[in-house]
Specification:
This protein has 7 helices and 14 strands. It is α/β, with parallel strands linked by helices and 280 residues long. The structure holds zinc ion (3 copies).
Length: 280
């Protein structure tokens, strides 16, 4: 199993699209791992988590063949995770030689609504529309695709919808993506402990960097991540060699990539950057 972090920023990107703050200027001048696009993760080469407006940029930057993607998991409807109009380019005159004809999309109701709004605004070609198979998931439901078992978990985020994060299992390997959630609800620990799956790689939300909004916030920062990693390491779903990553960073969190690495090193937590990969 392999994951690639295609984008590791919060909604505004970093440097942020319209921003002129010191943190954005610093990121721009340092370059490299400090340049972060909107959040997206590719699992192997056929499953995408989220569809941000930077998807096309990710294809160019990493030379991806997105025609292979047969499963799309959408965490929630925020613009940095779901840009539905992009789907209108998936087939007919806009995309030839598709390696996966059908795209199975999994999301909550609101994301599906967003897609239907986009379709009403600028009608998708019939063939493109028909190639999208939409599946509504709710927290703690399980779905199965040809290559994966998917478990939806309950995010502390976007209260106007049922935002989710996902555990993805392939054979005896598993990856859990936990971005765009605040500190995990207790129900998630209970559910995950009950599943009996040992997770190999876990990615955590670290939007707030050095800022902290406590355990009730809808994102985490360094302090919450440190506490959560400690808590997870005592749980049944984390193994001795489970790898932890932090991702989804905002300019307001004000920590450069190097500063984040120095802070997380003692805990053995890795700091994701655009293009960062893990394989196991
Ligand atoms: Zn986000
Ligand atoms: Zn900024
Ligand atoms: Zn969000």
């Amino acid at each position: 199993m392999k994951i690639k972090f295609l984008g590791t920023a919060a909604a505004e990107g970093w440097p942020a699209v319209f921003c002129n703050c010191e943190n954005c200027k610093k990121a721009a001048s340092l370059g490299g791992k400090n340049i972060r696009t909107r959040s997206q993760i590719l699992v192997n080469d056929d499953l995408l988590i989220d569809l941000p407006p930077d998807t096309y940029l990710h294809k160019l930057a990493h030379g991806l063949d997105l025609s292979k993607v047969s499963v799309l998991l959408v965490t929630h409807s925020h613009m940095d995770h779901f840009y539905p109009m992009e789907l209108s380019m998936r087939g007919c005159a806009y995309a030839h030689g598709m390696k996966s004809g059908k795209l199975r999309v999994f999301s909550d109701e609101r994301v599906r609504e967003g897609f239907l709004l986009a379709h009403r605004f600028e009608k998708f070609a019939d063939g493109v529309y028909r190639a999208l198979e939409w599946n509504i998931l709710r927290p703690f439901e399980r779905a199965e695709t040809e290559n994966y078992e998917i478990y939806a978990l309950k995010a502390r985020h976007a209260p106007s919808e049922k935002a989710m994060f996902y555990l993805i299992r392939q054979g005896d390997k598993a990856f859990m993506q936990c971005n765009d959630t605040g500190y995990l609800y207790e129900e998630n620990f209970e559910f995950l402990d009950g599943l009996g799956i040992g997770i190999d790689v876990i990615a955590l939300d670290c939007t707030n960097g050095k800022l902290t909004f406590g355990k009730e916030g809808s994102h985490m920062g360094v302090a919450e991540c440190e506490e959560l990693v400690g808590r997870m390491r005592k749980s049944r779903f984390v193994k001795k060699n489970t790898r932890f990553f932090v991702t989804h960073f905002s300019h307001n969190g004000a920590m450069t990539h190097d500063e984040l690495e120095r802070r997380f090193a003692p805990l053995g937590v890795e700091v994701a950057y655009d293009g960062c990969e893990a394989e196991w």
